[in-house]
Amino acid sequence: MEGKSETPVTTLKAHLALNVRNVAQSIEFYRRMLGIEPSKVRTGYAKFDVQNPPLNLTLNEAAFTERGALSHLGIQVESTNDVLAMREKWTDSGLITRDEMQTNCCYAIQDKTWVRDPDGNEWEAFAVLQDNLPETAPCECGNKVVNDAPAVEVAIVPSATCCAPVSAVVAR
Length: 172
What we know:
Elements: E1 14-20, H1 23-34, E2 40-42, E3 45-50, E4 55-61, E5 73-76, H2 80-92, E6 98-105, E7 108-116, E8 122-130, E9 152-157, E10 166-171
Parallel strand pairs: 1-4, 5-8
Antiparallel strand pairs: 2-3, 3-4, 6-7, 7-8, 9-10
């Protein structure tokens, strides 16, 4: 397209639309996880207008039997202290967290904490400590649990793909 000027696009925030089985149950989870109220709620729909990180998150109630093709979701933070602060925020909100510290995932050494929404979608808050590891570096995702909520036991089952651990929560 010669002759046309390249007009820069001003992006405001990423948009993520999740299918959920029960919008009311998911609203409660995301209220706790994000620490904010939804900006819009309708029958079978909710929107969270997240400022930090900038995100337009919508929840759309839909019938489905298995978890979708989505691997996982994440919020990259600057440091391990930020990971720990996110974990504290989530546990203070009543969510069950799972930590992976000094884990080799996605060809990087990372510190992470995870939560799972009512539909099985995994969210991680993570800090990259060392990046661009060689392709031969083994992925260790899902193998290191540091935090264990007092009322539950968390069993980690390595997933088929890196960066998407599957956990089972068993009441003690």
